[in-house]
Amino acid sequence: MINRVLIRIKVLQIVFAYYQNGNNDLRVAENELLLSLRRSYDLYYYFLLLIVEVTRLHERRLDTRKNKYLPTEEELNPNMRLVNNRLARQIEVNEKLLAYVKEHGVSWVNETDFVKNVLELILNSELYAEYKDSEDDSYEADREFWRAVFRKLICRNEELENALEDISIYWNDDIEIIQTFVIKTIKRFEESEGSKQELLPMFKDEEDEAFAIQLFRKTLLHGEEYRERIDRHLRNWESERVANMDLYIMQMAMAELLHFPNIPVNVTLNEYIDAAKAYSTPKSGTFINGILDSIVQELTEEKQLFKA
Q1: pLDDT in tens, the chain (308 residues)
Q2: What is the C-alpha separation between 6 and 171, in angstroms, rounded?
Q3: How far apart are CA 2 and CA 236, in angstroms?
Q4: Angle, helix 223-232 to helix 206-221, in steps of 10 degrees
Q5: Burial grade of 53 (CB within 10 A; 0-12, 13-18, 19 or more)
Q6: How many CA atoms lie within 13 A of 241 on its CB side?
Q7: What does the angle CA 135 – CA 141 – CA 145 come to, to the nearest 5 degrees?
């Protein structure tokens, strides 16, 4: 589930912190990387659990109104579509979710305001108005409702994203990516799977997990060597005037170019140019593209680069 795009982002963040903090403890930095990746995977479960918690909160509210003194007819006979949503009930008993929650302490218990805000967002939406009055009372309709909630209400919701970032510093750059995996997971749910519905693993395979560790190690262990080569290609640029983030990005790109022969050159270049656009200065993408192109040409001429 944690793909290589997210892995690169996490490695870049820890590499940046490693140099900025100046502690030079590789083991501590590597543990921080592993923790950061784990927190990203936690967010996946937090989002799935959010469906359950929003449903429970709505049910408690309806029960409270039903049992108050002199309830209205609507309060006595509320619309139960959201409470009885089959997907939410299936997720609530999912064995993988329950085991992960128990082992890693995933819970919204201290973030009740966030759960409340999500519920209000849903109840006040046209999406919910259409859903609660729809004649299509099926598992597929229930599943599609929650998929639409994430796509249309939660994803790219700046207010919700800011709240999530306040909950955990590790989620600052994860939210959009993890949301897409939650949407894919919901789409894969089948009623026949019941509580045994499979969820996404932390990594697609062992190769991706190894990629994270090796990219981090190679970036730092060969750092001086890479920086010397980068300096030679700065031409009229003075290395001390180049943004530190640009240097870290190019250093990581060199580690990937030289130590991961199965990753095409153009894939590596595109990934780190995108990283520069997202995490450095407005002109960094173009600048890094030029420097990396010249480095690739030099490495090829020196027969150090053997891949497409």
Answers
A1: 899 999 999 999 999 999 998 877 999 999 999 999 999 999 999 999 999 999 999 999 999 999 998 999 998 999 999 999 999 999 999 999 999 999 999 999 999 999 999 999 999 999 999 999 999 999 999 999 999 999 999 999 999 999 999 999 899 889 999 999 999 999 999 999 999 999 999 999 999 999 999 999 999 999 999 999 999 998 766 555 688 999 999 999 999 999 999 999 999 999 999 999 999 988 899 999 999 999 999 999 999 887 65
A2: 11
A3: 39
A4: 70
A5: buried
A6: 6
A7: 115
Q: What is the 3-state secondary structure (H, E, C) of 214-249?
A: HHHHHHHHCHHHHHHHHHHCCCCCCHHHCCHHHHHH
Query: How far apart, in whole angstroms, are the C-alpha atoms of residue 268 and residue 255?
Result: 10
**Tokens, residue 55:** 């449903």
Query: What does pTM read for this prediction?
Result: 0.92
Instruction: State the chain's maximal CA–CA distance in angstroms.
Output: 85
Q: In the numeric block, which tokens belong to residue 136?
A: 């299509």
Structure tokens at 39: 């927190």
Contacts of 77 (CB under 8 A, 6+ apart): none
3-state secondary structure of 87: helix
Burial bucket for residue 284 (CB in 10 Å: 0-12, 13-18, 19+): buried
- Nearest to 300, CA basis, from 255, 239, 258, 242: 258
Dihedral sign (CA 124, 126, 128, 133): positive
Distance CA 36, CA 27 (A): 14
- Torsion, Cα of 119, 120, 126, 127 (10° steps): -10
Query: What residues contact residue 304 under an 8 Å CB cut-off, 6+ apart?
Result: 258
Q: How far is the C-alpha of 217 from the C-alpha of 213, rounded, in Å?
A: 6
